[in-house]
Please model this.
Amino acid sequence: MVAATGSPEGVRNKVEVRDLAIRYGSATALAGVSLEVREHEIFGIIGPANSGKTSFLRALNRMDLFTPGMAVEGQILFDGRDVRKWRNVYALRRRIGVVFPLPVGLPLTIYDNVALAPRLRGIRKKAELDVIVERCLQRAALWDEVKDRLDSLGSLLSGGQQQRLTIARALSQDPDLLLLDEFSIAVVTNLVQQARRLADRTAFFLTGEMVEVGETDALFAGEVRDERTRQYLEGRFG
Ligand SMILES: Nc1ncnc2c1ncn2[C@@H]1O[C@H](COP(=O)(O)OP(=O)(O)O)[C@@H](O)[C@H]1O
Ligand SMILES: [Mg+2]
Model:
């Protein structure tokens, strides 16, 4: 396989986006976005409110199918395969987990929230489910806080805990790709620092346009292609 533009040779792309445009009715939310997310990397997307970040994640796991008026143009390849060519969108969405800022509270206990997907996959043995539930809650950094009350309702947890529960639930599907959309719970400056700590590469979106994409360290060191990126990272707007 030929390495796609922008990725060093030998590096596999998990996601390849080509000339993506997203519209809601006649309003364009995002246009002309092309980027790759490499296998095993943590890829950050930053940008002020309404830049198209959440819309981008929605397009990745085909939520446009369930969002009235949302239209996606261009191409999104996941493991080299066009996400629109998956006949079973639920199979695609099991491999791409998404965690949105507002936790969708399932009226279930903490345990059942995390055990739901494994049960749907056919796992019935309590001992086996116990192992999965503990592992997912550990990985979501929630286990210590809830291990003594796994039978209480997930919706009784604090907002931050519910968000981690949602992450545990997403992990229980064993996704290949996990999309975390936490923009609306963080201040922009915080988020920029979060991207700096977590992301190998970062894309900067601004008013429906991708200004640039680059190595996070380089961007924060001021090696930017576009002056607006420097200004945003320096906190001069947004
Ligand atoms: N369901 C929707 N219907 C109509 N417009 C939407 C919808 N979701 C988002 N938009 C619009 O798309 C643009 C991008 O929004 P969004 O992707 O949520 O940006 P961000 O996540 O960066 O804040 C905004 O102008 C927003 O109002
Ligand atoms: Mg958003």
Summary: The longest strand covers residues 13-24. The mean pLDDT is 87.
